[in-house]
Amino acid sequence: xxxxxxxxxxxxxxxxxxxxxxxxxxxxxxxxxxxxxxxxxxxxxxxxxxxxxxxxxxxxxxxxxxxxxxxxxxxxxxxxxxxxxxxxxxxxxxxxxxxxxxxxxxxxxxxxxxxxxxxxxxxxxxxxxxxxxxxxxxxxxxxxxxxxxxxxxxxxxxxxxxxxxxxxxxxxxxxxxxxxxxxxxxxxxxxxxxxxxxxxxxxxxxxxxxxxxxxxxxxxxxxxxxxxxxxxxxxxxxxxxxxxxxxxxxxxxxxxxxxxxxxxxxxxxxxxxxxxxxxxxxxxxxxxxxxxxxxxxxxxxxxxxxxxxxxxxxxxxxxxxxxxxxxxxxxxxxxxxxxxxxxxxx
Length: 346
What we know:
single chain; nine-stranded antiparallel β-sheet; mainly beta; 38% strand
């Protein structure tokens, strides 16, 4: 594995931003950036062997700060939403910044995704480290987070996320990478299959109502592969609230620490196929419903709504306020460890 490191830019506070390129023997490669421990590019072959970039991203490092889509980055301390920016842990109520309607989203406006992480080459991998101080964005505990990326000769990108704390806290980590297996244009003609027979209905602010419901007989059903756009305009609460898909699905058969297939994505035009596997219990599917107006893409193209899809393996939104969901509490002496694998073929 060939790994190269380059200085990519400088943050407003003067901190250096690095970009890493991991290239395998076939020439397929991944680029990672130290703003938000981001996946910047994934360049893999299509059905004719032509290499193309299949993830949304920007040309300039500075564009990764504060972008609405959170493109390719690791949000935190809590990915997804916490209702009204409040939760109680061990009898103490904590208040978080509200930045998504009435709710807290992705750790707030200064979340992990908008920080420059420390970084290094570690053997055949690249590691990013972020230290979140006690009280940052209102969360308790000093938290050390490591994002460890590996790129294989078989065009598999593996991310292992680990975290440790000195005080009880809540943690939910993912990568918010967006895919377009054709490179550019709409993904509404991509076909998606989810290993999920239940999803979490939400209120109009996208906070789960508490009880999972079957997808069967609804437009939320991706148990059998279908075009993303087939039902996206249906008059159905989840699709109306989000202007498309922006919902959490519970992965069938998920077990802590066990790798399970969460999703598969196909693009007929390029012939590319993506399988997403994870140890996480759930996956948030977001069809890029609000991409328009974000920074221009790496080719200079202006992104439009529905030009990419995010398949975010994670714990459930608002888990700190919903005790029936799998716990997101991390205590001193425990190790948070979750993995996501993106496997590309054509």
